[in-house]
Design goal:
The protein has one helix at about 5-125, and strands at about 125-130, 145, 160-165, 170-175, 180-185, 190-195, 195, 220, 225-230, 245-250, 255-260, 265-270. It is α+β, with helices and mostly antiparallel strands.
Length: about 270
Amino acid sequence: MSKENMDNIAENAEESFEKVNEETAQTESAVNDTSENEPDVASILAGEADEDRDLLKEMKQKAKEEKRALKEKLKEEKRAAKEEKKKKKADDSDDINIVKDLISIFIYMLIVVILCLLIITFVGQRTTVNGDSMNPTLENGDNLWIDKLAYKIGEPERYDIVVFPEQDVFYIKRIVGLPGETVRIDEDGNLFINEQLMEDPYSQIRMTSAGDVGGDGIKLGEGEYFVLGDNRNNSHDSRDQNVVGNITKKRITGKAVFRLTPFSKFGKLKKAEQ
């Protein structure tokens, strides 16, 4: 190896050594700079971590509050729904009760109407005295209750006050002659039944007209009754055979048993009146 080559190698080695020393110095400087800056980086990172924790805590608190608010809202909605359901149930119950009350009232009124119809048809009815033919026992305008069952279970008796229709008018008269009997009124106005003079306790007026039953009188057939008004001289009754005539049991509506008005005479018709 020549001296020149030896010198070149030494020079190159020296340059390499200087370069290594320079790089080493730069590295040490960089390391020192990094060591000096480490506290600042840690501090920044710590601060950011605290901020993240605070933010996370705030978010958790907010979420918790929202959850609580949502829970309260759901609870309130559930309570409102329950109240609405309860109110609707109460309204439905009220509607049902109203319907039940209406049905009950309707049934009650229907029963009353049916009972009234049954009573009027089969038991009794109210009638008003029209005229003076039954004075003084009954007066014009008296309201009477008629017993319709009396002759369904029994027979008409002498001196019963009976009601019967005639040409769309209801007559009120007293029975004096019974089926099979002969009724006669003489020229003096005396009443004879089977030729026996009858006392006339319900009229103090002397009859001035015998009508169609003078002379030999009239014999009543089976189921026929002879009726007179107590006001004998002001009464259309069985003496007029062409208008009223004898009446049959089937024609009799019922027996007058009760005076409704006037209230001063309210009550059952006395035996003396019947």
